[in-house]
Structure formats: structure tokens, C-alpha cells
Write a structure and sequence with these properties.
Blueprint lengths: L2 E8 L15 H5 L7 H17 L3 E5 L7 H6 L6 H11 L1 H8 L10 E4 L9 E5 L6 H4 L1 H12 L6 E4 L16 E4 L8 E6 L12 H10 L7 E5 L2 H5 L9 E4 L2 E5 L6 H11 L4 E5 L6 H7 L5 E4 L10 E6 H5 L1 H12 L4 E7 L2 H4 L9 E7 H6 L8 H14 L12 H17 L11
Parallel strand pairs: 1-2, 4-5, 7-8, 10-11, 13-14
Antiparallel strand pairs: 1-15, 3-4, 6-7, 9-10, 12-13
Bound molecules: N~2~-(3-carboxypropanoyl)-L-arginine.
Length: 440
């Protein structure tokens, strides 16, 4: 049976803004209060999806969520009409309103953790939506994300869904942003690398070991093919709030900064034991400092296995943010990596600046799902892209999105009305029915 990797990117929602909500995420703090361009953001995201499709790769997407999330505002004691809720929240607790307006579901690397069917005991594809307990604005996503995943992958013959882990930060779970899969072919039984953290001196760790362990159990993974590694405090305190900011795994390759893990020697030994085929390509701190690495999002690139036959055949391409090209030390390291004898031999730089300014690079914007042909056919085709569908989504963005949004604009009920009108049109386009909380 043939298997392929699908990247499910987050379609960036109409309320994308810079509210400075994520402690420990340097870009989010730095750009707090700046004006965003939601239209540009969504079009940049769609252009990235188109680029990956142009490489012959399979591309899907997860829809945005309904924002403002009135259900949460109601749970927090705001009542009356929808307009009154917005007006009162803006007056009494503007920070709560900003949390309920975040377009953060765009970073689908945090939507959940996925185990492809060759890796699981029951041969189903397993999904656990992340609880994202570390940040209030992100914790709101979990329930709807679980609903989205169950909607797209609804056939119980192939897909198993686990609810977000209970217990809030006791089981803090940020999904695939702290998880990687190593394998020789997508359809082989893969090795799962879970990276967890412990609070640093400056910043809190979002991913708990006990959460990663629970996800591995839920997904019925083989313990011999499961590795748990602790993130380094230095990386966390330098701004690597998710491990995918300092490393990425794909196929046989682990591409990372040498300061990613707390105990590198033990981590590499454990990874090599579980995945003897692994090729570890690292940047030394001499080549690229942690600061350069985090400032440029070098390792938040998508590391993509190109399809065989098309100049590919096991060769890999890096899809990086423009910021990586703009830093001469980072650019030199990428060029050196391409010139060396390893599977990575192509670099593509893309503009995802709107997302980057909130700390989300190319790899944050996608959830990887390896599917067999049969499993892909069982998934909801509305969310699997081709040229025609991507153009329709662009038309939808152009019709409904603003090209400027400042945090003060969140107080205006007209933004809520526009946002809900966009979501109504999207649910029609995707035949989702009355899907979101505001439609129920
Ligand atoms: O969780 N930023 C996101 C960025 C997520 C990046 N994802 C990965 N690394 N996989 C976060 O910190 C900022 C929102 C704001 O400040 O308005 C934000 O949520």
C-alpha cells in the first residue's frame, strides 16, 4: 500500500492580530500592539500551500475557528446580545476580548499529535487534539480543533480520535510542535520523538513529559520506537517556546541546533538506538547562535521529502521563511548544508511575515498527517487541496478580509459581524453545516 505525507496548513482567520498574548514567545511580545494585515497573512499562507503543491506534495488545510469566541466570553460572565458582549468585554476586560479574538488556530503544528497507521497497534491513524493549556487564548482552541479533526477524519474504520488531555498544565500538551517522526519511508513503522520541557529561569515550559507519555499510550505506539527527550533550558530561555523552533525531523533526517536538548549525548544515543538509520545534521553554536536561530526561524522550516521521479526520490527540500535568508550567518549555514553530502539539497524561501511576527514560521503553520491511499480517500475531500480549491479560498479571503487590523479595532462589533459572515460563507463552501459554536 502506498503512503504519502499530507501537510494540513492552518487557513489563517480574518481576525489575525498582534495582541502580545504569548509569554516566552519573543516575536509575540515584540510586535504587541502593532497593526496586522489579515488579508495578506491568509494569502501568504495560501501561497505557501501552493508552493508545496508545486513540488508535487499533498496539501490539505484546517479551517480557522470562530472568533470572537462568544461561548468563552459568555462563560466568563458577559451576557446580553452578541454586540453587548463585545462592547462590555472591550470596556471591562479588553485583555479577555483579545484572547477570545486570537487567530492562533492558524498554527496547526499545535492542533494535535498524529500517529500514522503503520505505527499503531490497531493500524488506525490516531489523533489527539492538543489542550494548549499554557496560554489562555490557545486553550480555547482545543474543543473546536478536536471537532475539526473528527469532522475531516470521520471514518471510524480508519481513524481514532482522543480528546485533549485533561488536567490543564499538569498534562500541558502543545501537539506536533514538540513531536517528530523518523522513518525510511512514510509507510514504514516510524520512530516517534517526543520533546518535553521543564521550566527555564526566564520562561515556562509548555510541554510536559507526562503529557507526551499519555499521548504515546493513547496512540498505541510501540515503546521500542518511542523516544522522550528533554529540551534544553538554554533553548527555552532563548525563546524556543516549542521545540520546532530549534529542530525538525523528517524521514531519515533530524535537522537541529546543537543546543536543542538538555543532554545531547544521551538524546542522540537514544534516538540512534530507536532509529539506526537516522542522519543528524546540526548547526553548532559557532555557526549559528541560538539567538540567530530563533530570530530567523531557521529550524522552523518545513523539511520535505520530494516525490520520486520528479528530481526527487528521497531528496529533501527546506521551505524556509524569508527571515532566514536575510540573516547572513543563517543563509551561509543553509548554503553549506545544501552543498554537503546529505539528503537536503534544495532551499525555498517564502514570505510568511504576518505569521512570523507572532512567532509562527512555515513549520508552525502545518500539521503533518501520513495517510495511505485508502485513508486519504476516506478523509473529507473539501479539505484536500488542488489548484481550483486553493483559488476559491483566495477569492473567499479577498471578499471577506480586512487589510489592516489594530488591537483597538477588536472593540468594534462590526469586526465580529464581518468575521462571522466570513465563517458562514466558509462553512457553506466546505459543506460543513452549522459547525461552529456561533452557528449553533
Ligand atoms: O503559541 N503565537 C503562537 C505561535 C505558535 C507557533 N507554533 C509553533 N512553534 N509550532 C504561540 O505562541 C501569538 C498571538 C498574539 O500574541 O497575538 C501566538 O499565539
Amino acid at each position: 500500500m502506498s503512503y504519502a505525507e499530507y501537510n494540513f496548513d492552518g487557513l489563517i482567520g480574518p481576525t489575525h492580530n498582534y495582541a502580545g498574548l504569548s509569554f516566552g514567545n519573543l516575536a509575540s511580545a515584540k510586535n504587541a500592539g502593532a497593526a496586522s494585515n489579515p488579508k495578506e497573512a491568509a494569502l501568504q499562507g495560501l501561497a505557501k500551500m501552493r508552493e508545496a503543491m508545486g513540488l508535487g506534495l499533498k496539501q490539505g488545510f484546517l479551517p480557522p475557528q470562530d472568533r470572537p469566541h462568544l461561548k468563552t466570553l459568555r462563560a466568563l460572565g458577559f451576557s446580553g446580545t452578541d454586540t453587548q458582549i463585545i462592547e462590555n468585554a472591550a470596556r471591562i476586560a479588553p485583555e479577555l476580548l483579545a484572547n477570545c479574538y486570537a487567530a492562533s488556530p492558524m498554527w496547526t503544528a499545535n492542533a494535535g499529535t498524529v500517529a500514522p497507521s503503520p505505527d499503531t497497534l490497531d493500524r488506525k491513524v490516531h489523533f489527539t487534539a492538543a489542550n494548549l493549556a499554557a496560554n489562555f487564548h490557545r486553550s480555547i482552541e482545543a474543543e473546536t480543533t478536536a471537532r475539526v479533526l473528527a469532522h475531516i477524519f470521520s471514518d471510524e474504520k480508519y481513524f481514532a480520535h482522543h480528546p485533549p488531555l485533561p488536567g490543564a498544565m499538569h498534562f500541558g500538551d502543545e501537539g506536533a510542535a514538540n513531536h517528530g517522526r523518523l522513518c525510511e519511508n512514510h509507510g514504514d513503522k516510524g520512530v516517534h520523538l517526543f520533546v518535553f520541557g521543564e521550566d527555564g529561569e526566564k520562561f515556562p515550559a509548555r510541554q510536559k513529559l507526562r503529557a507526551s507519555e499519555a499521548v504515546a499510550r493513547n496512540h498505541l505506539l510501540d515503546p521500542v520506537k518511542t523516544v522522550f527527550v528533554k529540551q534544553s533550558g538554554a533553548a527555552l530561555d532563548a525563546g524556543a517556546f516549542h521545540n520546532d523552533v530549534v529542530g525538525v525531523a523528517n524521514g531519515t533526517v533530524l535537522f537541529l541546533h546543537e543546543k536543542s536538548f538538555a543532554d545531547k549525548e544521551t538524546a542522540y544515543r537514544d534516538i540512534r538506538e530507536a532509529a539506526p538509520f537516522v542522519e543528524i545534521i546540526e548547526a553548532s553554536a559557532k555557526d549559528v547562535s541560538l539567538e540567530d536561530c530563533i530570530g530567523s526561524y531557521l529550524f522552523n522550516s518545513q523539511l520535505l521529502t520530494l516525490p520520486a521521479g520528479d528530481g526527487g526520490g528521497g531528496e529533501m527540500a527546506l521551505l524556509l521563511p524569508n527571515e532566514a535568508q536575510e540573516n547572513p550567518r543563517v543563509k551561509a549555514f543553509v548554503d553549506e548544508t545544501l552543498a554537503k553530502n546529505n539528503p537536503i539539497n534544495r532551499a525555498i524561501y517564502k514570505d510568511v511575515r504576518e505569521s512570523m511576527r507572532n512567532g509562527g514560521g512555515p513549520a508552525c503553520l502545518r500539521l503533518r498527517v501520513v495517510l495511505s491511499q485508502e485513508e486519504a480517500a476516506a478523509a473529507d475531500g473539501h479539505f484536500l487541496l488542488d489548484e481550483a480549491k486553493i483559488s476559491k479560498l483566495e477569492d473567499w479571503v479577498n471578499a471577506h478580509y480586512r487589510d489592516r487590523l489594530s488591537p483597538d479595532d477588536l472593540a468594534d462589533p462590526a469586526l465580529m459581524e464581518e468575521s462571522f459572515a466570513a465563517m458562514e460563507a466558509l462553512t457553506d463552501l466546505l459543506s460543513m453545516g452549522a459547525f461552529y459554536d456561533f452557528q449553533r
